[in-house]
Specification:
single chain, 17 strands, Rossmann fold, 20 helices, about 600 residues, nine-stranded mixed sheet, alpha/beta, globular
Length: about 600
């Protein structure tokens, strides 16, 4: 059933009376639920969706999927609200927290906020991963419910913790580091921690301990052949639920890496259709309607923590980009603010929440910052006329200038640009193009200019591979046998590494060959752009983890010992020991913060 058909059949009255505050942004209006960031989406289908997200690394991988689902619901006329669990995403964590009481209280507060904002008394709960388990346990406190959607739900909290421990080791192995010795939980996947006091409570959650059906009808978005999903279905059926099963398209790929994750469009469309079907039968009597309230203003939409306050807002020509302005608590900011640029498709908290932690540490030192999502990343939808791939694109560089505009509109001086990996590329090129920039910090940068013959897809997929990596792979037990039997597929990666090796050799010869070759022209262009920054006396700080793959790019353009960097008086190089490309371990993140503090906020 189409959205228009549902509206016609139910004769929905307008959500907001004349003179009320404007509707939430169609891209998600930032709101604060207790002390957690939420995004509220408009709709008028007589039903609203409360989204209970995943936790930790799974949440980071699925952030864009969650955004796409909320936007798809809104386009179909269905209001929704999604939010961060306390201690996750942008939400601060309380000291020595125990249990999940505040998580469940946030669910209740979010349900009330959604009902008041949408005018819909009946809700559908949508839960992903651990959020699915929490939906089962929270359902009775947020009735009435018109339906429940469970996406790859956790069935047993204790088993979930064991899976997190395995997942932690897998991610560490993939990026070539051991498990963090400072992780007292042993299950901080990609450095994203769940407080020990919460883990104990999570271990006690079980689907088969749920005593009442969350709703008469349930949509189970299940992973093929996954025992946990089968167990949840059995529990729901035993409680008298009518369960519809829908395959979860590409779930395993979605949760492998945030940069590789793409929203599963067919799965999301099926969820929207199912909710729409519930909407046609979910209109309460007129006397049960709640009165939609104007959107709160001012301090109601502020996140507060130790030494900082944060204001979420949307900006850009169509309000499509989401930013979090972090400022010192109780005092005016001093010096230049900091502007953080996304690395890969890690949304604005950063890998291992490193960006978020840096922003709040700067605020405690009196320095304001803006972290934001470029188009197509995290909470900022892609532009309809934008490129299919935002990374290493002109569109991402343009978004950085829009963020500088947003800071200027709030009375801030031009910011210090800070970016890691692809974010460093965007920051560098934005600094070249935007004369307002006076300071730039590039962390583990892998490209200064883009080779038009290089595939962005290959660069992302094989960014951290080297010839040495493949040699080590072949030396492992059974490596050669797997190669000759076709089980080890190195063809595309090997070809890409040869491409990169050929480029590095050719660029190294550029000072001799000059502009006669393409790589000579690339070499000339890098130094032209560095010259532009030098002419404006822009401070350029290059920061690399020792042994990082990005050092190959640095040496390609500046020499094996960096001798050609010395020609730029405002440029410097800082090396950080014992760190991976993403600064996953807590100690490595602390060393990076110390370097950035010295460079940005001494």
């Amino acid at each position: 059933m189409s959205a228009s058909a549902v509206r016609a059949a139910t004769q929905i009255i307008p959500l907001r009376p004349a003179g009320a505050e404007h509707e939430p942004s169609r891209f998600g209006e930032p709101v604060v639920i207790r002390n957690s960031l939420g995004l509220l989406y408009p709709g008028d289908a007589g039903i609203a969706v409360l989204m209970l997200g995943a936790v930790g690394y799974e949440e980071m991988c699925l952030r864009t999927t969650w955004q796409a689902l909320a936007e798809g619901l809104s386009q179909a006329g269905i209001a929704s609200l999604r939010f961060d669990w306390p201690g996750q995403g942008d939400a601060p964590e309380a000291d020595d927290v125990e249990g999940l009481a505040d998580w469940f209280e946030t669910v209740r507060a979010a349900a009330e906020r959604l009902r008041r904002a949408s005018g819909s008394s009946r809700l559908v709960l949508v839960g992903q991963g651990l959020g699915g388990m929490l939906a089962l346990h929270a359902a009775q406190a947020v009735q009435p419910l018109a339906g429940t959607v469970l996406m790859a739900p956790v069935a047993n909290g204790k088993r979930y913790q064991r899976e997190l421990s395995v997942w932690t080791r897998m991610v560490c192995d993939r990026i070539g580091i051991g498990v963090d010795p400072d992780d007292d939980t042993a299950c901080a996947v990609a450095g994203i921690r769940i407080a020990p006091g919460r883990l104990h409570a999570i271990a006690g959650l079980k689907a088969d301990a749920v005593e009442a059906a969350p709703s008469e009808e349930v949509l189970l978005v299940a992973r093929p052949g996954h025992a946990a999903d089968d167990a949840v279905e059995a529990v729901l059926t035993g409680l008298g639920c009518s369960v519809t099963r829908q395959p979860y398209e590409g779930y395993e790929v979605l949760t492998t890496d945030p940069t590789a994750a793409r929203p599963p469009r067919e799965t999301l469309a099926a969820i929207v259709r199912w909710v729409l079907e519930r909407a046609s039968a979910s209109i309460p009597p007129q006397g049960e309607r709640v009165v939609p309230l104007p959107r709160p203003q001012g301090d109601d939409e502020v996140l507060k923590g130790e030494g900082f306050v944060e204001r979420p807002f949307r900006f850009g020509p169509d309000g499509r980009l989401l930013g979090i302005l972090c400022e010192p608590a109780g005092a005016a900011a001093e010096g230049d603010p900091v502007l953080f640029v996304n690395a890969g498709r890690d949304y604005h908290i950063g890998w291992a929440r490193v960006t978020l932690n840096q922003a709040r540490a700067f605020a405690r030192r009196g320095v304001a910052s803006l972290r934001f999502d470029c188009s197509g990343i995290g909470d900022s939808p892609a532009a309809s006329d934008g490129p299919e791939e935002i990374l290493y694109s002109q569109a991402q560089i343009d978004d950085v200038s829009l963020a500088i505009d947003a800071l200027a509109a709030r009375g801030f001086a031009p910011p210090v640009l800070v970016g890691r990996c692809s974010g460093a590329y965007a920051a560098f090129n934005a600094a070249v193009a935007d004369a307002r920039v006076r300071r730039l910090v590039m962390v583990n940068n892998e490209r200064f200019v883009w080779d038009p013959d290089e595939s962005v897809e290959d660069a992302i997929r094989y960014a951290h591979r080297s010839v040495g990596d493949f040699g080590a792979t072949l030396r492992r037990k059974g490596g050669l046998r797997r190669l000759f039997t076709g089980q080890l597929r190195v063809g595309p990666a090997a070809r890409y590494i040869l491409f990169r090796w050929h480029k590095q050799v050719s660029v190294a010869l550029a000072p001799v060959l000059g502009r006669l070759t393409k790589h000579g022209r690339l070499h000339r262009e890098v130094h032209r752009r560095m010259g532009v920054l030098a002419g404006r006396k822009v401070e350029v700080s290059l920061v690399y983890a020792e042994g990082d793959v990005g050092m190959a790019e640095y040496r390609t353009y500046f020499g094996a010992r960096g001798e050609r960097l010395s020609g730029y008086r405002e440029a410097s190089l800082t090396m950080i020991a014992d760190a991976d490309h993403n600064f996953t371990h807590r100690a490595a993140a602390d060393r990076l913060l110390a370097v950035l503090t010295r460079l940005v906020a001494p």
